[in-house]
Amino acid sequence: MVQSSSSNVQGPLLIRQIAEKIGIPQDALDLYGDYKAKIKLSYFDQIRPNPDGKLILVSAMTPTPAGEGKTTTAISLAMGLNRIGHSAIVTLREPSLGPLFGMKGGATGYGQAQVLPVEEINIHFTGDMHAVTAAHNLIAACLDNHIFRRREPLIDPRRVTWPRIMDMNDRALRNIIVGLGGKSNGIPRETEFIITAASEIMAILCLVESYSEMQEKLNRIVLGYTYDNQPVYLSDLKITGAVAALLKEPLKPNLVQTTEGTPAFVHGGPFANIAQGTCSIMSMKLATEFADYVVTEAGFGFDLGGEKFFDIVCRTAGLNPRAVVLVATLRALKMHGGKSKSELDVPDLNAIQKGFENLEKHIDNLANFGIPGIVALNRFSADTNEEIKLFKKLISTKGSPMAVVDSYEKGGAGAVDLAEQVHKIAQHDRNFTPLYDLNLPVTEKVSIVCKNIYGAEEVEFTPEARADLKLIKNLGLENLPICIAKTQNSLSDNPKLIGRPRNFTVTVRRIGISAGAGFLVPVTGSMLLMPGLPAKPVAENITIDDEGNISGLF
């Protein structure tokens, strides 16, 4: 079991020591230097999850460019639980290079609540992102070669659905033409690039527990259609073994540590606005073997990461969270109350009161799943006592417990109150209730999520989406869960509608089929699967000195 700590570790421990703390033997580790390791799958197969282990989900209100500190809060909560005498492990997703060099910067927490080693995890880590990219693009290359060689089954180049990917924000690659330059270079066709986090390969990696299960799911990936409208699966290309070989190492969970020596599994990296948004089920199940509490996070707001965590991840993996933490900031409330980013350090009670309706909707949404929740106010230095007093008053009207968290400055000590309250509300034996029955029609499942979680008045399906519905029915895939692709910046499908939008219509433009991962992807609004860079990307701030020290990630 994890040993509780009452003070910061002076420098990181060797990863062998972190493994020893939780009972993982040395021969179960594949070391990646002194501070990173992978856990061998042969060891994962031997574990028996702790029946008393409690899974805690950390989610949030609708995020803003100001940043809400969800990962920082998750890390500090695990450290806080250790401080009050309960063993805890945090499980997180791996950072993507796209947001790292784009708008967000590092994704390993901040201040005194981080996972270490920061620069290595953020940039290359153990190579998982690169391997997923290679595996996905191997399929793309073999697919175009299959078309060029006119092999059976004959694929219609106009109906290829498998894109190419890269782990970078690059809007110029959203719509491309391949195969130009003459007949020896292939058959010209339109296609696209998406970001690695949106790849079905990434989704599969985070939803399986063995090499054999991974290959079964890989075989079911739909790559396109023949001239007579028959689906073409990855199994038809006969390269599943090669793809799986590239994923041999990425499937192994990664072990690192927090700034206070709390063990951390950082594994997998799907975004929640375009995929399921949580770390691998292997890392969560592995953590439950060794800890009383496993703290995990789901991307963006509860409308995206939280709903998908329950309806896709938990349903697939048989997980049952005991409590949910909703992270909020006064800065986010002000932005949802109509203030600009430059005005957030100015006290404004009216903006907080107006913006509270966004958080209120997320609190209401949590009630759909039957699991208790708590609101964590991630405190910033500019927050005033008067503003915090108002926030507590607003929360009291919802009957929800809350705690103020100051983990940036204090690490685990700043999350002790949150840890104590999480421990209190997690003492129950209830099972979560899924939002929808899998046997419902796809349109009804989409409508339930859009109306109950987003607050939509109506849901419209474009002609293209309705054609996809017919295809889904013909393929016998109507009983799959749905993974709605939607903007993270609003409860609606319009990123400009802040706060708690009402009387809006969600437009489903098309419905992607992720038969390998085991879900359908309704794409709403103008949602893009390849982000672009901002006017001033974070990449302009990053430097490296002659000693190899990297700065500017945050």
Description:
The chain is an alpha/beta fold and 554 residues long. The chain has three domains: 15-127 and 251-425, 3-Layer(aba) Sandwich (Rossmann fold), CATH 3.40.50.300; 129-246, Domain 2, N(10)-formyltetrahydrofolate synthetase (2-Layer Sandwich), CATH 3.30.1510.10; 442-524, Formyltetrahydrofolate synthetase, domain 3 (Roll), CATH 3.10.410. It is 33% helix and 19% strand. The chain contains 19 helices and 24 strands. Strands 1, 2, 3, 4, 5, 6, 14, 15, 16, 17, 18 and 19 form a twelve-stranded mixed sheet that branches. Strand 14 and strand 15 form a beta hairpin. Helix 6 (128-148) packs antiparallel against helix 10 (240-246), helix 8 (211-219) packs across helix 10 (240-246) and helix 14 runs parallel beside helix 15. The longest helix has 21 residues, at 128-148. The protein is globular and about 70 Å long. It starts with 14 loop residues before the first helix and ends with a strand. The model is unreliable at 1-9 (pLDDT under 50).
Layout of helices and strands:
Elements: H1 15-21, E1 29-31, E2 37-39, H2 41-44, E3 54-60, H3 70-83, E4 88-92, H4 97-101, E5 109-110, E6 113-116, H5 118-123, H6 128-148, E7 155-160, E8 164-166, E9 176-178, E10 189-191, E11 193-195, H7 200-205, H8 211-219, E12 222-226, E13 231-233, H9 234-237, H10 240-246, E14 254-258, E15 263-266, H11 281-290, E16 293-297, H12 302-317, E17 323-328, H13 330-336, H14 349-366, E18 373-378, H15 385-396, E19 402-405, H16 407-410, H17 416-425, H18 442-454, E20 458-461, H19 463-474, E21 505-514, E22 519-524, E23 543-544, E24 550-551
Parallel strand pairs: 3-16, 3-17, 4-15, 4-16, 8-11, 17-18, 18-19, 20-21
Antiparallel strand pairs: 1-2, 2-14, 5-6, 6-14, 7-12, 9-10, 12-13, 14-15, 21-22, 23-24
